[in-house]
Amino acid sequence: MEFINTLVNGLNIGVIYAMIALGYTMVYGIAKMLNFAHGDIIMVGGYTIYVFCAMKAASSPAFFFVAIAMAVIVCTLLGVIVEKVAYKPLRGASPLAVLITAIGVSYLLQSLSQIIFKSATKFVSVPELGKVSIGAVSIKVSTIITLVVSIAVMISLSLFVKYSKTGRAMIAVSEDRGAAQLMGINVNSIITITFAIGSALAALAGLFYLLQSPYIYNTFGAMPGIKAFTAAVIGGIGSIPGAMLGSIVLGMIESICDSIAPIAPYKDAIEFSILIIILLVRPTGILGKKRREKV
User: Fold this and answer.
1) For the segment 182-238, what is each residue's pLDDT rounded down to a tens digit?
2) b/e string for 227-254 if b means 16 or more Cβ within 10 A?
3) Which of 180, 291, 223, 171 is nearest to 17 (CA)?
4) How far apart are the C-alpha atoms of 187 and 69, rounded to whole Å?
5) Mean of the pLDDT values across residues 116-128?
6) Average pLDDT for residues 23-48, to the nearest whole number?
7) Cα separation of 58 and 222, whole Å?
8) Contact 24, 35 (CB under 8 A)
9) Interior angle at CA 35, CA 126 and CA 157, nearest 5
10) Is the dihedral of CA 207, 212, 214, 218 positive or negative?
11) Is there a contact between 263 and 270 (Cβ–Cβ < 8 Å)?
């Protein structure tokens, strides 16, 4: 019974990480950059939900869906703006310059949220969805919703990338940006679309986090963002199924660590140690593929 609850908790954590990791892996797979501000876009989505849920009309359950829709719209627009203002001018710059800019954008978003909403933790009045019992196991409805949505998103993204015209253009840009441009693909538009999709997923991740713990603050998305990036690397960054698999693995590890009192305080160290071991054994991650670099 205890073991099953541990697995359920691990699955719950993992699918939330998966929503974030899918955004990371989309941006890295197409644009070949690590957007470390991704976690803070989650925070913006959380604050958007907080603002709308604080309105009087939020007493209506239907209004909560309006809050979710607004969070997705705000995060998508923010992702596009960040890409246009901060990253597009650095398209030909060194990876280090882009990385430093991403960290700067992350701190900028955290500081702006602290100025607007202050540093105190805010309670978000999200609906209580309750639990369902499956045999002797009790599972939160929010966990089931998160799992179903995450799987649906992963399948949808995989089909979108494989079969749609825009998705095939994404693959072309990922493989060879210069050749894709010569074939008439608008590389800038494809990268912008990728950021928009990743940011929309960040908004959903913020929602699922709030359903588990309805409190928001200016560094709300920082640690989940780092954990999700770790999960994406473990699964194979750039691979959509790899992001999902790595997130479930990391969620299970975290849940098992939490269930063992003596090692619970060291769960973060254990998770990052496992990341190092996986990178030493298989640098491309579990499902990642080796790429030949052109000289």
Assistant:
1) 888 888 899 999 999 989 988 988 888 888 888 999 988 888 888 888 888 888 877
2) bbbbbbbbbbbbbbbbbbbbbbbbbbbb
3) 223
4) 28
5) 85
6) 86
7) 27
8) yes
9) 70
10) negative
11) yes
**pLDDT, tens digit, 9 for 90 and up, residues 149-169:** 888 888 888 888 888 998 899
Which of 41-61 are b and which e, b meaning 16 or more Cβ less than 10 Å from the residue's Cβ?
A: bbbbbbbbbbbbbeeeebeee
Alpha helices per DSSP H over the chain = 2-31, 38-53, 61-82, 95-117, 141-163, 165-175, 177-182, 187-212, 222-235, 240-259, 267-281
Residue 32 phi, psi dihedral angles, 5° rounding: 60, 45
Q: What is the pLDDT of residue 55?
A: 74
Provide CB contacts within 8 A for 34, sequence distance 6+: 24, 27, 28, 98, 99, 102, 229
Q: Whose CA is closest to 198, among 17, 16, 24?
A: 24
The residue to which tokens 């054994």 are assigned: 281
Alpha carbons 275 and 104: distance in angstroms, whole number: 25
Contact 30, 174 (CB under 8 A): yes
